[in-house]
Specification:
Number of helices of chain A: 13
Number of strands of chain B: 0
CATH class of one domain in chain A: Alpha Beta
Number of helices of chain B: 2
Radius of gyration of chain B: 23 Å
Radius of gyration of chain A: 21 Å
Helix content of chain B: 55-70%
Largest sheet of chain A: 9 strands, mixed
Oligomer: heterodimer
Number of strands of chain A: 9
CATH superfamily of one domain in chain A: Vaccinia Virus protein VP39
Number of domains of chain B: 2
Strand content of chain A: 15-25%
Strand order of the largest sheet of chain A: 1-4-3-2-5-6-9-7-8
Structural class of chain B: mainly alpha
Order of helices and strands of chain B: HH
Shape of chain A: globular
Helix content of chain A: 40-55%
Largest sheet of chain B: none
CATH topology of one domain in chain A: Rossmann fold
Strand content of chain B: under 5%
CATH architecture of one domain in chain A: 3-Layer(aba) Sandwich
Distance between the termini of chain A: 51 Å
Chain lengths: 386, 108
């Protein structure tokens, strides 16, 4: 990340990303290290306190998450851990927003693409779903659907996402999820040649561009709810040499025709929606697929384990204090049943090994998680033949 | 083009179990100050390295610097002012408690 301090944009992974000044970089690295400290030095202690509490609870024969939460709340360090964790996230967005505003003019100039290969379509009448507007996801001020007519919220999300992932997700390109989703496609069908690809919930296109790179002959589309993010995604994809057609739509119900895509995919979208929306999105994926097509939905690789109340409670706290509207729903869904009910067969559920470049593999998919960031949960299926 | 400022406060910040709002505000300020100190140190480090690279400072000049009497006195004043400023609330709170148990008319 330190190479990002240079103003030499041409040497960057893509020149549109907000480049921090000397002091802004120090500020962002501080946030990254604070997050690591909270995660590695404070959180494990809370886990140990929880273990002790669970032992005491077993004596009274209860292991419910709500009881554990009440008992944890009697420890002051529980509240200070949560407060510090949330504050680290708020500092991230605060610092990134200031840095983006400082260079807004330069970013807007860069985003003005004279002869784009792709396109962006904004719907002025679009109404963002309730799960998006109920709370700003990941505490990003203004939320995913924020739109001031500029590209700036997209720029905030891009730089913030890269800092948030602590360089674990493909550095400044933040593209390992997209690469891994495409590696899953190639693991299942090494010779797959999709003519049209759709990325649902594409955000700023971090996973859309890898799809275009992996399948250069394909026409690639990306949809999301945020206009600022989509404008930014369009400019970003152009700078990366990818022709992508972005449009502002809900993945639950798109304006594309039936059977108009060969590959429909999403990356870590379900946990930002709702249970009802997840069902609708899987059904919409089915509607959009041609015979011989494939739907791939990638999610966080966290095992749902209701035998451990601390794991349960951690998830609940993450959902509540980092505004993840469907964390629990996404981690507990029976994806096989949902896919099959929507008209998919040959459904595969498991973990795809993280790939740095889809065509380079690894083409490894199995029932066990290889750990967070080393593999991603994937559910995929083929449309039933009518 | 006129530009709107980016929003800074996220929508929906649920109260944290058992925590007082003031505790959270204090913690946020400590984090903010730690961030500022970290930035300052990075900037000072950059300044020292640039001065060394340009030959203005010899390597190790800052670490080897010994303040003379005048500089020592100036630092003394700065340190005391900093301590007074930062720990003022604790002293004020102690003084207030003292006042609350001191009979009126009796000088504290």
């Amino acid at each position: 990340m330190s190479s990002q301090s240079s103003d030499n944009r041409a040497s960057l992974a893509h020149p549109l990303i907000a480049v921090p000044s000397h002091d802004e970089l120090a500020e962002q690295l501080f946030v990254r290290d604070l997050k690591l400290y909270v995660m590695q030095q404070i959180e494990p202690v809370q886990g140990q306190i929880a273990q002790q509490e669970v032992k005491l609870m077993e004596k009274v024969e209860t292991n419910s998450t709500s009881v554990l939460r009440k008992r944890m709340a009697t420890h002051e360090s529980f509240g200070s851990w949560l407060a510090l964790k949330r504050e680290s996230q708020r500092q991230l967005w605060h610092g990134v927003a200031r840095s983006v505003e400082r260079q807004a003019e330069a970013l807007e100039t860069l985003a003005d693409i004279p002869e784009p290969k792709g396109s962006v379509r904004i719907n002025p009448d679009f109404v963002a779903p309730a799960y998006i507007v109920r709370g700003d996801i990941h505490l990003m001020p203004g939320g995913n659907a924020h739109d001031d007519g500029s590209i700036l919220q997209g720029a905030v999300m891009d730089r913030g996402g890269a800092v948030y992932m602590l360089g674990r997700n493909g550095g400044m390109l933040n593209d390992l999820r997209g690469q891994t989703a495409m590696a899953h496609v190639l693991t299942r069908f090494p010779d797959f040649r999709p003519a049209r690809i759709l990325d649902m919930g594409c955000g700023i296109g971090t996973s859309t561009v890898p799809a275009a790179t992996c399948f250069p002959q394909a026409e690639v589309y990306g949809i999301d709810v945020g206009a600022s993010m989509l404008r930014y995604a369009h400019a970003r994809a152009e700078h990366l040499g990818a022709a992508v057609h972005f449009s502002q739509q809900s993945a639950e119900s798109t304006d594309f025709e039936d059977a108009s895509f060969d590959l429909v995919f999403s990356c870590v979208m379900f946990h930002e929606t709702s249970q009802a929306a997840t069902m609708a999105i899987i059904a919409e994926s089915r509607r959009l697929l041609r015979p011989g097509g494939l739907a791939v939905h990638l999610e966080v690789p966290l095992l749902h384990d209701n035998s451990d109340p601390w794991v349960e409670l951690s998830g609940e706290l993450e959902a509540q204090f980092n505004n993840e509207p469907n964390w629990r729903g996404a981690l507990t869904a029976d994806y096989r049943a949902l896919f099959e009910a929507s008209g998919f067969n040959d459904v595969q559920i498991g973990y795809q090994a993280t790939s740095a470049a889809a065509r380079g593999g690894p083409f490894r998919f199995g029932p066990e998680s290889e750990g967070v960031f080393r593999s991603w949960f994937v559910a995929s299926g083929c449309p039933n033949v009518a | 083009m006129s530009r709107l400022p980016l929003p800074r406060t996220p929508h929906r910040l649920d109260p944290i179990d058992g925590a007082r709002a003031m505790d959270e505000q204090l913690l946020a300020m400590v984090v903010g100050l730690t961030s500022e100190v970290t930035i300052l140190r990075a900037r000072l480090d950059a300044a020292e390295r640039l001065l060394e690279a340009s030959g203005v400072l010899a390597p190790g000049a800052v670490d080897g610097f010994e303040p003379d009497a005048e500089a020592e006195a100036a630092r003394e004043r700065q340190r005391r002012a900093t301590v007074d400023k930062v720990f003022r609330p604790l002293r004020e709170a102690a003084l207030a408690e003292l006042a609350s148990i001191t009979p009126s008319g009796e000088a504290a």
